[in-house]
Design goal:
The chain has 199 residues and is α+β, with helices and mostly antiparallel strands. The protein is built from five helices and 13 strands. The radius of gyration is 18 Å and the shape is globular.
């Protein structure tokens, strides 16, 4: 897709905490639109589609994925997002990883933010396994601290309710495994979670 949005340092504002979870303003020349679960266009939130002069024309030797993601000049990112009243883009996570539970949108980013507000948690990554009814939560403690799964589950319960808290599988790691692109390695986290069982 190329660069879709940017948040320059001058726009970081401690009086607006939402700025630190946004992806900035959409850059000139790039278009972003949204679709709701029915496929209808929505003005400000939903599954993201992008059109950009820097966008690739397709996937090399991957016709199935190309047909799914490149449609009529738009790239279907598969991410859930929204644009706020000030025009800032917020990427909430993969659409397949997000779920509405008891009227509340539950996203990996929202769960991670909740866990990172605990004093002993330095970093957290949540990988949903919604078909299995669980959400894997890998947490890194601050030096000299231990991360208790009970505290993590209770924090999620307060924020998102009992059903989401029951789905949480918390396991401590010294560091989160990363892919070559520097993103959390979901496959490695699945393997690590398999060694600890359900918390």
């Amino acid at each position: 897709m190329g660069i879709v949005s940017a948040l320059p340092p001058a726009e970081h504002d401690l009086d607006h905490p939402d700025r630190f979870t946004c992806a900035g303003h959409i850059v000139p020349g790039v278009e972003v639109r949204f679709r709701d679960p029915t496929g209808a266009e929505h003005p400000s939130s939903g599954l993201m589609e992008v059109r950009s002069p820097a966008m690739a024309s397709g996937y090399r030797h991957r016709p199935v994925e190309e047909a799914e993601h490149f449609v009529d000049g738009w790239y279907h990112a598969g991410d859930l997002g929204r644009v706020d009243d000030e025009g800032y883009l917020h990427v909430l996570g993969r659409g397949a990883d997000c779920e509405v539970v008891d009227g509340v949108l539950v996203t990996p980013v929202g769960l991670q933010d909740t866990l990172c507000r605990l004093a002993q948690v330095r970093y957290a990554v949540v990988v949903p396994e919604l078909e299995q009814g669980r959400r894997l939560a890998a947490v890194v403690a601050w030096p000299g601290h231990d991360v208790g799964s009970a505290a993590c589950v209770e924090a999620v319960r307060r924020e998102f309710g009992d059903d989401v808290a029951r789905s949480l599988v918390v396991f401590a790691v010294e560091r989160v495994p990363l892919t070559e692109q520097g993103k959390p390695d979901r496959a490695a986290l699945h393997r690590l979670a398999g060694t600890v069982g359900r918390s």
